[in-house]
């Protein structure tokens, strides 16, 4: 869909967005408000009901609906009978099934895809294994195939894709090219957005996977359904440090409700510091453990009473605490969120890490440390939400319609809608496994 509301035309045919930019901005805001209410109510609404819900005048709502019928996912519904006499009132409904949006999480050996309808409901999924030794073009083919499978599993056609968001494990430059990546070295120098947008015929957003997970955590902790945008009346919920702890440790920063990128998009990329090691035993950024083959094993053995494992956890937290404390003193957030595979350890990780980090900080003000709301689904949530935010005009025909971030936790791996389950192709069990990073 290429047309979207930019403002009405005056009687000379001159767009109001040029003649009256302030008026055009108001019209767009009114359209976004009406569309969000229609989407969230999940039932047909009359002009009068929309006017009450949006606090807009009925003539304003009537004009907005006229535009949305042409440009947005809105259609007339069965007229609603009123208790009194008179003709049934016109009613309108949101057509969530009119398009699809993809969220994609790229791993070193896997591709995870979730498909949402225009209301943001998860309606399709696919997961694929990436063969070892594959080249960059081969990885792109795996992504295309997984997205095609997920869209068809949702009961739609690949041509219905209106936008996609991708989280990649690497550093991107301002042109969207991957400049560094240990996980997907075959994509270094590649602009995935350009390549995939050409294939799908729709806008594609590409961002670092950890930064997307961090943004999702911030959005989920903000007040629901406020429609707040980055840079508007920031609160303590708008600043946080996100630490992904799995096989490696990665960091991302959210400041004033937006991803902190820096001049070269390197903010938080501690792995690009020469000689940087989170622990003495880590090799090329990968964590190594003595009391178990993986961190999960070490925490499991500590819970079973293994003193050696418990001691290693305490030592691990003490080793990584100085770097975390330095970041905390630099940006002074209210919150540090732990994501990744080890976030499932819960208080077994948070308690000793909080003690170690707070011990390093001599000032009274200390950040709260907590675990992720999304665990290993942060990148998928961030990819979908960022795509709805960035490409709202292309997806819904109206700019700046706030996404439904708070609807997503718990839905990425849950059952699909009943109408879609029978039509969805089976996904092999082996493809559902996700390496913790």
UniProtKB/TrEMBL annotation:
Extent of the signal sequence: none
UniProt KW Transferase keyword: yes
UniProt xrefs under SUPFAM superfamilies: Actin-like ATPase domain (SSF53067), Winged helix' DNA-binding domain (SSF46785)
Official protein name in the record: NBD/HSP70 family sugar kinase
Alphabetically ordered keywords of this record: Kinase, Transferase
CDD domains per UniProt: ASKHA_ATPase_ROK
PANTHER family named in the record: BIFUNCTIONAL UDP-N-ACETYLGLUCOSAMINE 2-EPIMERASE_N-ACETYLMANNOSAMINE KINASE, ROK (REPRESSOR, ORF, KINASE) FAMILY
Family: Belongs to the ROK (NagC/XylR) family.
A Pfam family that the UniProt record links to this protein: ROK
InterPro entries in the record: ATPase_NBD, ROK, WH-like_DNA-bd_sf, WH_DNA-bd_sf
Lineage: superkingdom: Bacteria
Organism, as annotated: Actinopolymorpha pittospori
GO MF entry, a single one: kinase activity
């Amino acid at each position: 869909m290429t047309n979207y509301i930019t403002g009405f035309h005056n009687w000379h045919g001159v767009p109001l967005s040029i003649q009256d930019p302030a008026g055009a901005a108001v019209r767009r805001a009114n359209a976004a408000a009406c569309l969000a209410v229609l989407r969230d109510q999940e039932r047909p609404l009359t002009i009068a009901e929309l006017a009450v819900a949006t606090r807009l005048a009925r003539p304003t709502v009537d004009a907005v609906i006229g535009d949305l019928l042409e440009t947005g996912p809105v259609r007339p519904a069965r007229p609603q009978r009123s208790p009194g006499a008179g003709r049934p009132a016109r009613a309108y409904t949101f057509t969530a099934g009119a398009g699809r949006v993809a969220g994609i999480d790229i791993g070193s050996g896997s591709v995870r895809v979730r498909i949402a309808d225009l209301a943001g409901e998860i309606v399709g999924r696919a997961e694929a294994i990436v063969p070892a030794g594959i080249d960059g073009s081969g990885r792109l083919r795996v992504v295309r195939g997984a997205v095609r499978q997920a869209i068809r599993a949702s009961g739609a056609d690949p041509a219905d894709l209106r936008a996609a968001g991708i989280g990649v494990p690497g550093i991107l430059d301002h042109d969207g090219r991957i400049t560094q990546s240990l996980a997907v070295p075959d994509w270094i120098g590649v602009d995935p957005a350009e390549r995939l947008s050409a294939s799908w015929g729709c806008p594609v957003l590409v961002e670092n996977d950890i930064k997307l997970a961090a943004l999702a955590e911030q959005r989920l902790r903000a007040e629901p359904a406020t429609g707040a945008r980055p840079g508007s009346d920031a609160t303590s919920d708008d600043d946080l440090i996100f630490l992904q702890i799995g096989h490696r440790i990665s960091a991302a920063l959210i400041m004033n409700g937006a991803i902190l990128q820096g001049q070269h998009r390197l903010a938080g990329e501690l792995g690009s510091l020469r000689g940087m090691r989170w622990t003495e035993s880590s090799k090329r950024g990968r964590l190594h453990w003595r009391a178990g083959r993986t961190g999960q094993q070490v925490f499991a053995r500590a819970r079973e009473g293994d003193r050696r494992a418990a001691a290693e956890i305490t030592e691990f937290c003490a080793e990584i605490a100085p770097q975390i404390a330095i970041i905390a003193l630099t940006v002074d957030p209210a919150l540090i969120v732990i994501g990744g595979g080890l976030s499932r350890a819960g208080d077994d990780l948070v308690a000793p890490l909080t003690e170690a980090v707070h011990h390093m900080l001599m000032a009274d003000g200390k950040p709260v440390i907590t675990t992720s709301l999304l665990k290993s689904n942060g990148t998928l949530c961030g990819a979908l939400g960022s795509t709805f935010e960035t490409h709202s005009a292309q997806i819904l025909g109206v700019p700046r319609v706030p996404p439904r971030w708070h609807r997503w936790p718990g839905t990425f791996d849950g059952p699909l809608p009943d109408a879609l389950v029978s039509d969805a192709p089976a996904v092999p069990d082996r493809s559902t496994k996700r390496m913790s990073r």
